[in-house]
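Q: What structure does this chain adopt?
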Amino acid sequence: MKQAAPDRTASYCSGMTADSGPTADLASSQTNQPHQPRPTTTPVTQAVILAGGQGSRLRPYTDDRPKPLVEIPGTGIPILGHQLAWLAAEGVTDVVVSCGHLADVLEEWLDRADLPLRVSTVVEAEPLGRGGGLKLAAKALPRPDEPWYASNGDIWTRFSLRDMAAFHHERDAVATLALARPRIPWGAVETDQFGNVLDFIEAPPSPFLINAGLYVFSPEFAELLPDVGDHERTTFPQLARGKRLAGYQLALGVYWRAIDTAKDLTEAAKELAACRDSAQ
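A:
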């Protein structure tokens, strides 16, 4: 098995704190991610990455490459390369990438890259939506009777997937989604009951949790996915009604960002550079 090129962000972005400006920062009262990994009955060793989107809001960077191959300046590695290195470090041995837009460019990159795990691809002949893309890729997983991770192809983060898998097993969930609390991109104003301004707060954490685009799925989840469409509008509500959908809140200091626009790319470069500098 080939050795991966070093991911220079691995050692300095995993512990980014609130003071250093992470995009997602959860309250320290969260208790569902302990310091030591918890054992699972079946280790999760396979994953799906969704890489079929057009990436239209990230143009011109996506004119000649799919969004997962966009590189955050200063990292020396595309988003997909970071994800594969992270998955391998978490015990994953096999990944299926669901491709669409510029699939040939992504497959050529995989052929050239030094990969730390086995990677195969499936190509959507026509757009299937996120749920359809997941279902197509799940059919290509080498061990269909075992659980699997999934990730949107534009996520830059690093945390213990093993802990998330243990949480998923403990809750006896069919699906578990990671939850992040992103920072509001505007400054907030605090007032008292009389309307007097008390303070200005720069980019405070959102009061709401969001779907972080990272999942653990039990084997039976694949059969519940739509052939075409969005699983968040069909499968997830169905599981939630049956209390088989769990939410795993990312711990304090975990860096998380979705790279969806050119501004996201610029902000991520600044954040990761600051984190790198603070670690030196």
